[in-house]
Amino acid sequence: MIRNYFKIAWRNLRKHKFYTLINIFGLSLGIGCSIILFQFITYHLSFDTYHHDAKQLYKVVTELHLDDGSVLFEQGSPLAMLKAKVNIPQIKEATAVLRIHNTTISVTQQGNVTSQLFAEHENVAITDNHFFDLFDYEWEQGNKNSALSEPNTIVLSHTLAQKYFNSQDVIGKVIRIDNKNNFKITGVIKDHPANTDIKTDMFLSLSTLKSIYPDVAEPLQTDWGWINTTTAVYFLLPDHVSSQSVETMIRKMTVRDLGNRANAFHFKLQPLSEVHFDGRYSGIIQRSLLVTLGLIGLLLIVIACVNFINMATAQSFKRAKEIGTRKVLGSTPSAIFFQFMAETASITFFAALLSVLWVWITLPVINNWLQTSLTLNFISDLRLIFFVLILLVLIIITAGFYPAMLLSRFKPVNALKNQLGQNTKSAGLARKSLIVVQNVIAQVLIISTILITLQVRYLKTADLGFNKSAVLMLPVPDNTKSKTDFLRNHLLTYPGITDVSFCYRAPASTADKGGSIKYDSRPWEKFVGRTIMGDAGYVKTFGLRLIAGRNLAEGDTAKEYLVNEKLIQKLGVKDPQQVIGHRLAAGDLSDNPGTIVGVVKDFNSKSLYTAVEPEYITTFRSAYQNIGVKISSKDPSAILAHIKKEWQAVYPDHVFEYRFLDEQIADFYKKEDLLNKLIKSSAVIAIFISCLGLLGLISILTLQRTKEIGIRKVLGASVTHVTTLLSVDFLKLVFIAVVIASPVAWLMMSKYLQNFAYRIEIQWWVFAVTAALTILIAFITVSFQSIKAAMANPINSLRDE
User: Fold this and answer.
1) pLDDT at position 416, please?
2) Which residue of 118, 212, 334, 573 shows the fewest CB atoms closer than 10 Å?
3) Under 8 Å between Cβ of 589 and 621
């Protein structure tokens, strides 16, 4: 019986090739997009879940409670937190990871005199053996229990070992880091998987900390206030111990050690499973975005199913005699029901096969586009297999149930006479409702795409209050005065270089340095001031606007300050001139007082998610890590060659690298770029599937009205009149969808834009453009078949009838 169902289904599908292909093509796009979105979502949900103790692992994060009632969230924690392992017996194990931003590796091969230099970024960390007890790594060489026990030992990933020595026989070999310390290789581990937030390929022994940071090693290990984003402490708790109870004990410990200072520091235990998603602590992606993408995938399937339902119900008129004949010959309603379900299953099966082909072809492009490592493996990926099977079952039930029920309930006499009456009326109303739903989804996606695109463009082109164009950022491996002065002087002699500044970071960066400030003899302020450190050339190089006073004088320590408008506003001073000459002490800079010599116009030192904060700029040579070089637009390649030559003359043992400042700032908005790409792609596919549905529907309905069209043409109706007659009903439905979709999209996007301190206004023309675009696309799609029908010879139409 089942075999017979599918045999007849195959005949019917071949008989109606055009509509079958439309259904298969539309469903395949929906299924393909859903598979990609499912893999994207599960990829992010899998981050760091593979560790054997993942459910008991916690990262210590910091809440800074300020006197004004505000709370700052910091993903890092002090290295002093490791003492909690001794004081709190409920902590089973603890480890710390100190990331190093930029490192130069020097490797001397056997028999070579000169060394090879390699630059590593964000993939080098300092830790101890306990790290490998908490986190799972596959060891190729060495012993995880002792590899980092001694000072100046190092563990490399498989890739780095091959990169440095072109061999895996590296145990006992020595590499030099930042031309300061030699490290002996004691272990090689397999490369970490892509789905981890701890993307470290080189581990240095924690016992070498004093050699790496000789000036700050002691406060770094003992000072509770030494908190930065590069230091992470992890705890392993037993199953029966709650994180809240450990947080309470940590609180008691900090109060005991810090006294009144403890009011500001609140340490929380963040489950390892939340590290990837918690935006407060620099999570990569929010769970709400994954939910949104899941809904988009579902809506694309709904649009494709709507096409199938609409065309199946529209074809009921053509298949009425077939159904009536079957019933007269003894077929039961259940047999007819399962026959149409078999047709639905066949179409869904072929659509699934085609969708796999789409995904297989596009996946390499998508991975490069989204910077992911998505795979398509139906042999080992059980979650993907179950998802596809469940999805196909849902599609078959959703798309097939209603048409099958409708067709199986036709009365044989009425079906043979084509007198379907109420059945066709109810089916027509349902069809119109589904078309509206389909277009509402597509239009909401279009409006969202336009507004997100406008917001991303605004983020990247907004006036930040400083100049970000044609500014190169280079690393400063050694900020000794003799070297920085020599490099500055030689760079400025070149005609294509206009300004040079040594600094900690550019005006806009991810740096989060700051602390309390003290103005004159007033008590310490309740708000936090953000610290920006740069030399006397900082203002000119980055185009900051001085509105009162003068620029900083060159100095090695914080003796003079420039403050921004926001800071003097927070101080309660209205006239910028009134703060000139007053004293300012910064808690972030050892409380040493200096003199305010100038006021700069507000500028955005972070992404436009956040508003401008109180900021001060001062000289502080020991903190300089970068050099900003303002260049002219004439012959940039020659300018770069000169910069490289002069930089390498000063730092011959380091790798020359550079980035343009505007590129660095664009990196702030990778999440928005990602969302924009996904929404834009979904909108295009939704529109395309909707158009396929409209094309199929107008084809069927035109055939149903063949006699009417012939009579109208015989009575003198023009092609334009007939085309308008056939198109207007569909365009009305599209217009209704516009009316419904506009307020829905406005509410959704208003909520989305609230995430930004600086955002675009939602303009009326966005909705007008969307309405015009969808109506135009619908008109073109419908007119293609309408004009064809209107231009047909009426004699042939009436003869066929």
Assistant:
1) 46
2) 334
3) no
> Mind spelling out the 3-state secondary structure of 255-324?
HHHHHHHHHCEEEEEEEHHHCCCCHHHCCCCCHHHHHHHHHHHHHHHHHHHHHHHHHHHHCCCCCHHHHH
CA atoms within 13 A on the CB side of 255: 7
Compute the distance between CA of residue 367 and CA of residue 381 in angstroms, rounded to an integer. 18
Q: What is the DSSP string of 631-699?
A: E-SS-HHHHHHHHHHHHHHH-TTS----EEHHHHHHGGGHHHHHHHHHHHHHHHHHHHHHHHHHHHHHH
Q: What is the pLDDT at residue 97?
A: 95
pLDDT of residue 182: 93
Say how far residue 800 (Cα) sits from the centre of its chain: 58
Query: What whole-number distance in Å separates Cα of residue 616 and Cα of residue 279?
Result: 26
Closest CA to 709 of 729, 724, 692: 724
Contact call for residues 423 and 332 (beta carbons, < 8 A): no
| Start-to-end C-alpha separation, the chain | 36
Distance CA 35, CA 18 (A): 26
Q: Are strands 153-157 and 181-189 parallel, antiparallel or unpaired?
A: parallel
How distant, in Å, are the alpha carbons of 187, 475, 509, 551, 594 from that of 538? 44, 15, 15, 9, 18
Token pair listed for 525: 């302020």
Regarding beta strands 471-475 and 174-177, do their DSSP bridges make them parallel or antiparallel, or are they unpaired? unpaired
The radius of gyration of the chain from alpha carbons, rounded to an integer in Å, stands at 34
On whether the CB atoms of residues 324 and 419 are closer than 8 A, the answer is no
CA–CA separation, 463 and 636 (whole Å): 24
Taking CA atoms, 219 is separated from 78, 383, 532, in Å, by: 10, 48, 22
Could you read off the pLDDT of 736-758 as tens digits, one per residue? 988 999 999 999 999 989 988 89
Residue 277 and residue 244 in contact, taking contact as beta carbons nearer than 8 Å: no
**pLDDT tier at 541 (50, 70, 90 boundaries)?**
very high
Helix (H) or strand (E) holding 549: strand 546-549
Q: Which residues contact 83 (CB under 8 A, 6 or more apart)?
A: 253
Residue 420 confidence (pLDDT) above 60: no
Q: Helical H runs in 523-669?
A: 538-541, 565-570, 636-650, 661-666
C-alpha to C-alpha distances, 468 to 495, 605, 643, 660, 764, nearest whole angstrom: 20, 12, 19, 8, 32
Determine whether 267 is exposed, middle or buried from the number of CB atoms within 10 Å of its CB (0-12, 13-18, 19+). Answer: buried
Length, in residues, of the chain: 801
Going by DSSP bridges, is the β-strand pair 71-74/57-65 parallel, antiparallel, or unpaired? antiparallel
DSSP3 helix / strand / coil % (the chain, rounded to 5): 55, 15, 30
* Cα–Cα distances in angstroms (integers) from residue 3 to residues 6, 190, 332, 339, in the given order: 5, 51, 17, 11
Q: How many helices (H) and strands (E) does the chain have?
A: 24, 22
Q: How far is residue 783's CA from residue 531's CA, in Å, rounded to a whole number?
A: 63
Q: How many CB atoms lie within 10 A of CB 544?
A: 23
Residue 7's pLDDT band (cuts 50, 70, 90): low
Pull the structure tokens for residue 635.
């012959």
What amino acid occupies position 529? Answer: G
Q: How far is CA 161 from CA 127, 167, 269, 394, 587, in A?
A: 19, 7, 35, 49, 43
Residue 415, pLDDT > 50, answer: no
Q: Is 102 helix (H, G, I), strand (E, B) or coil?
A: strand
Confidence bin at 369 (pLDDT 50/70/90): confident
The CA distance from 155 to 202, in Å, is 6
Element spanning 239, H or E: none
Tokens of 590: 């050892």
Q: Which of 742, 729, 743 is nearest to 778 (CA)?
A: 729
pLDDT of the residue at 428:
64
Residue at token pair 């185009």: 543
- The more confidently predicted of residues 72 and 160 is 160
